[in-house]
Amino acid sequence: MKCIINRRAEFSASHRYWLPELSEAENFERFGLCANAPGHGHNYVLYVAMEGDLDEYGMVLNLSDVKQVIKREVTSQLNFAYLNDAWEEFQQTLPTTENIARVIWNRLSPHLPITNIQVFEHPELWADYEGNHMEAYLTISTHFSAAHRLALPHLTLEQNSEIYGKCARIHGHGHNYHLEVTIKGKIDPRTGMIADLVAFQNAVDEHVVEPFDHTFLNHDIPYFAKVVPTAENIAVHIRDLLEKPIRQIGAKLHKVKLIESPNNSAEVYGLSLAEEEAIALKEPTLANV
User: 98, 180, 243, 260: which one is catalytic?
Assistant: First the structure.
């Protein structure tokens, strides 16, 4: 029987986004404060996912052995290091979060049956790499606060209460929504980036966080005048709002996860090109709603 196990590790390191073939002005224009010398640091958290058959002892791998491999091949070399100089790979391609995940995969895959490498630069930014050449995933998390009411306009209060319970009460209720947006793309062989991180964050802020924050969704967001703002419908709408802006920064929207509360969340995946074209034909003004 196949089983996936995960091992967590940590290392603290610094890095700098700087390309010697660019001028100082060009580096700061491209990388912003991340180009400052001598660099900046993070407490990185690493998750190594491994797959295998259960042995007679009920284990995929001996975790003590796994721990030693990760320490020998990765954390002992990167902990308290300047990443740009630590490994040859980072001299060719900058040590962005997504490229760190890719390089760690390449370092560990000869020794462990890896299925995924996940690297957290901080709690609101992480990358996943699954061994697919230069393709990786980058996720940012953010939040907004909003109120909503779950009710169909053609039903009575009693009927809506039967469907939605307390969520149908006429004055609504609020949540501190936690939003995770994941993009997919190829790592640039020089910058180490799937897409410009600032542009990614700006797209999410401009199209979702700023319009949604401190609103009553049913009244302030035109889309939800006719669509019940369940967590599922909100996630779908956020996906539709972000598809085009994410394409414009050179990546593909992979997943939107909306956490309404510690008990409830919804996630939807990005559309295929055919699905996007079909929506554009049926509802050409959707992105402007």
Answer: 260
Give catalytic status of residue 3 as yes or no: no
In terms of Cα–Cα distance, which of 178, 161, 286 is closest to 236?
Answer: 286
Q: What is the pTM of this model?
A: 0.92
Question: Would you say 42 and 122 are in contact if contact means Cβ atoms under 8 Å apart?
Answer: yes
What are the tens digits of pLDDT across the range 75-112? 999 999 999 999 999 999 999 999 999 999 999 999 99
From the list 40, 173, 214, 219, the catalytic residue is: 214
β-pair partners for 50: 5, 114
Q: Where are the alpha helices (DSSP H) in 109-190?
A: 157-164
How far, CA to CA in Å, does 34 sit from each of 85, 94, 243?
A: 16, 11, 27
Q: How far apart are CA 107 and CA 94, in angstroms?
A: 16
Two structure tokens written together for 178: 């936690």
Phi and psi, residue 230, nearest 5°: -70, 165
Residue tagged active-site, from 111, 167, 232, 276: 167
Write out the two tokens for 28: 């700061």
| C-alpha–C-alpha distance, residues 137 and 253, integer Å | 10
